[in-house]
Structure formats: C-alpha cells, structure tokens
Amino acid sequence: MLHLRMITPPHLTDRVLELIDQTVGTTHLVVLTGAARDPEGDVVLCDVAREAADELLLEMRSLGIRESGSIAVENIDLSISSRAEYAEEEAPGEAADAVIWEQLAESTHEESTLTITYAVFLMVATMIAACGVVLDNAILIVGAMAVGPEFGPLAGVCTGLVQRRPKLAGRSLFALLVGFAAAIAATTVFSLVMDALGQFHPGMLVNPRPNTSFIWQPDPFSFVVALLAGVAGMLSLTSAKAGALVGVAISVTTVPAAANAAVALSYGDFAQMWGSAEQLLLNLLGIMLSGTLTLIAWKLLWRTQQGRMVRKPGAPRGGKGGV
C-alpha cells in the first residue's frame, strides 16, 4: 500500500475526492478542510494499493495539482486494517509487478545526474577492477562491480526514452559517457602510478588470464549477457521487491571493461584497449536496448489493466462500512 498526502485548492477538492472514489484499491480517506497554509488549501489523505496508484496519480496531475498544490507519496511498511486488505484484493494485478511511473522518473532523475559522488564512485570501482584484471582475480572484479554506480544513468536513459523525457535521457547519457571517460582517464593514471611503484608490470596484462580474458574479447555472449542484465535491472527498479545485487549484474562487463581499457592504454596495448572499449560500448548498448524494451512491455501490460482501475458506481470502497 501507498499513502497519498495532497494539498488541493478548494475548487479542486471535490474533483480529487471524486477521482479517489472512482479508483479501485483506495481506502482510509481523510479530508482536512482549510488545513493547509503553504500553499493554502485543503489536505486530502488516502491509502491506495500500489497497483492502482499510477493511474490515480496520472489523473491527479491532469488536474494541475502540481502547480497549485502538492502530491506526496509514501510507502506503507505495515497497515493493520481489514479495509486495506480489501483494497489490495480489489485492485487488479500484483503489487510487486506494479510500476509507479512518477516514482520511477523521480528516482532515476536523482541517480542519473553527473555529480562528484557519482564520478568518484565510478573511478574507485574502475581502479578496483584494474587491480582485478592485472591479478586475474575474480573476487576483485565482483567487488568493483558492486561499487559501480552506472546503473542509475542507464536506467535514466531507458526511462527518458519510454516516458518521452528528452532532458532526462540526455542528462543520463551525458553522466554515463563523461563518467566513464573520467574513470578511464583516472584509472590510466592510477595504473602508471602502480607501475612506478612496482605493483603493476606489462607481463601482468599479456600473461594468460583465464578468469578475466573475456573482458577484452567481446563475443555474442557479451551482448546476450548485456540484454539479460538490462531486463534484470529494469525489473528491479520497477518492482516493489527490488533485488539488492542487481547492480552487480549490470556492471558485469562495463566497469571491468573500462578498467582493462585503462590499463591497456597505460601500457600502449591498443589491441586490448580497443577490445575492451568495444566490450564496454556493446554492453552499454545492450543494457539500454533491453531495459527500454522491458519498460515498454511493462507499460503496455499495465495499460490493459487501466479499465479495471475504475470502480463501478455504487460499489463500496475499502469493504463494508464505506470509507
């Protein structure tokens, strides 16, 4: 369940109440007339099943509440109420499968901006991966993948394309490209420093590396893995039951490939550098392609549910006893 808190201008309050009344999966409606001071207006509170929230929020936005009032959405971790249980049963679909597009756009907006924190995380992840590729150490590679923050911009590109928000897509793509360019440059310098300290040497790069050689040798499986990672990432982002390790799957051949490209560049091994760059671009494109297609499929799926989100006239809300 989600909790909605709205500040509505008095002339829109009746329309807001009508929309809530018409939407299945709503309950616990509270109206505080004239309670809001900044901006002035009425306060409307209600709980709504996650499955029905997106359609209700879309209707609320169409009223212009964003400009004249506000809409706040909070997750309800625990609701001990038979009416809440009825509302969830009434809403079609499953909560874990529901997509709140406004929430998705907001979360990707926050995570897809090029910030100092994002850039430092990506640089550190690439440097850790550099240690992993020269030592052929899979543990270090996995550790670098866990640190990598590139899933945010990747998700931002996909969301921006599906939601037709060019600014979000453009900002996300900028963060992605500039972030990786900065990470590769910083890791190249890091590799040169490690070489000067005697920790890295050219032999580490040319010696057989059975655990990490795939990083600079792209093949059809590279693209397949990228497609699967994109699907997993988008499902994690849109689902109420997001997996904690999805970021690792997303970074499987992005951060390590960037790291291998940087180390190869520092030693002038352009064959490995271009192979790693190809692997990186191939995986970024694959993730964005499958992520975008996953969101489109999810949007079409939930569009078929829209007709079932409207309560029939006279039907009760939240079980017996009305509101």
Topology:
Elements: E1 2-8, H1 10-22, E2 26-37, E3 40-48, H2 50-62, H3 65-68, E4 70-75, H4 82-90, H5 101-111, H6 116-135, H7 138-147, H8 151-162, H9 166-196, H10 202-206, H11 220-238, H12 246-250, H13 255-266, H14 270-303
Antiparallel strand pairs: 1-3, 1-4, 2-3
Give an overview in words:
It is a single chain. This protein is an alpha+beta fold. The protein is built from 14 helices and 4 strands. It has a 4-stranded antiparallel β-sheet with strand order 2-3-1-4. The model is unreliable at 319-323 (pLDDT under 50).
Core attributes:
four-stranded antiparallel sheet; Glycerol uptake facilitator protein; 2 domains; alpha+beta; Alpha-Beta Plaits; 323 residues; elongated
Give the CATH topology of the largest domain: Glycerol uptake facilitator protein
Query: What share of the residues does DSSP label as strand, in percent?
Result: 5-15%
- The main sheet orders its strands as 2-3-1-4
User: Would you state the CATH class of the largest domain?
Assistant: Mainly Alpha
Distance between the termini: 16 Å
The residue fraction in helices comes out at 55-70%
Second rung of CATH, namely the architecture of the largest domain: Up-down Bundle
Radius of gyration, CA atoms, in whole angstroms: 24 Å
* Backbone shape: elongated
List the domain count as a whole number: 2
Find the count of extended strands (DSSP E, 2+ residues): 4
Q: What's the average pLDDT?
A: 85
Task: Work out the helix count.
Answer: 14
Q: Indicate the structural class.
A: alpha+beta
**SSE order, one letter for each helix or strand:** EHEEHHEHHHHHHHHHHH
Give a quick account of the main beta sheet: strands, pairing sense, barrel closure: 4 strands, antiparallel
Q: Catalogue the unreliable spans.
A: 319-323
